[in-house]
Amino acid sequence: MAIATINPATGETVRTFDELSEADVQRKIGIAYERWLTYRATGFEERAELMHATADLFEKEADFAAQLMTTEMGKTLAAARGEALKCAHGLRYYADHAAEFLADEPLADPSAVGAKRALGRYQPLGPVLAVMPWNFPMWQVMRFAAPALMAGNVGLLKHASNVPQCALYLEDVFRRGGFPEGCFQTLLISARRVEPVLRDPRVVAATLTGSEPAGRSVAAICGDEIKHTVLELGGSDPFVVMPSADLERAVATAVEARVQNNGQSCIAAKRFIVHSDVYDAFTEAFVSRMRGLKVGDPFEEATDVGPLATEQGRAGVEEVVDEAVSAGATVLCGGRRPDGPGWFYPPTVITGITRDMRIFSEEVFGPVASLYRVADVEQALEIANATGFGLGSNAWTDDPAEQERFIDGLDAGQVFINGKTVSYPELPFGGIKRSGYGRELSAHGIREFCNLKTVWVG
């Protein structure tokens, strides 16, 4: 894929970019490594000042950052502005809490190990490569960058090829926030050039959010090099609704959970598993709301759902939906692309899905909801867990016993009861199974790229 800004609402190529030469890539890696040798010695207070200054820029420039995101990947302008402000929140969170999260962990009784003093100490690893996706082109990067920089690491960003202006803005905003040259750099390179960067001995670890094939590739290369990785590879999140749920709230949240980011979110609810006692009422209200959403120009305030980010992405969504329909599934709304320019696809609800259909087991990265009717909690859990993914999950019930059953029984990195799965700096984020491994955010996220050094003093 060429490195270019292509407006997904029109299909127009706005701007193209040349890849970095190999000499430039080597120069940037060298700068990163040399910077880390000095930056790792800075204190939390100094780093925090830089983080707060960068957060100030995100808040001041939220409208500009939003324009970049909407132009490059098509999310609504309101959602893009919210993403920019969330970046500021993430920066401030780690600025304020990193010292606490990475404080020495002394052994209460060092004499138990024959020492005068014994402790664990967190120290940065070095330059880390982040391979990042286009769907949250700034927040996803910040989930890595804020904790990594506060821990004393430095970052190299290989962003998705369709959001180059977002990638360059991120490098620039850290620079203008006062971070020394080399602390955070963007590498405008294609995917085929990632492997040599991963194998460079000056790059000590990697984090990737993206497709399963990309995750397998990065994990295999880093495994061969014995380098630490964190992977977030998407999901097919269940959204379970039981009879005791507040149905009106559940429906409203279900719509929001499915079409957020134009349906292109790893933690978007994708499979709606509804108890038979409330299935008909839920379906009627859900389909009505999905059908009533306004699809259109993401720059317009009234728009609920913008275009999909890429032409290939829309083709993939169409293919899975069309195959399901051909195999006997029923489309309750949507299901066909509109006429005209841009990569739009309507909010779609499908039922009558069987296990041999791709839509049952694959992630659909667009505003397509799958509906399932179940008889009880156990059947709901069986369908919810009948996927290779395990990122987020949602269950709606006011029954305390059912809540605990879903909390324990859903195979996922996250379970949200009576709410929509959301990433918060305060909570760990990550998945299990084919959704990846490791954690972002919270104290766990900042410790991922640290060496926990055991210290024993006799």
TrEMBL record:
Coiled-coil intervals: none
Annotated protein name in UniProt: Succinate-semialdehyde dehydrogenase / glutarate-semialdehyde dehydrogenase
One Pfam family here: Aldedh
Transmembrane segments annotated in the record for this chain: none
CDD domains assigned to the protein according to its UniProt record, in alphabetical order: ALDH_SSADH1_GabD1
Signal sequence segment: none
Domain spans labelled Aldehyde dehydrogenase: 3-455
Keywords for the protein's UniProt record, in alphabetical order: NADP, Oxidoreductase
Family: Belongs to the aldehyde dehydrogenase family.
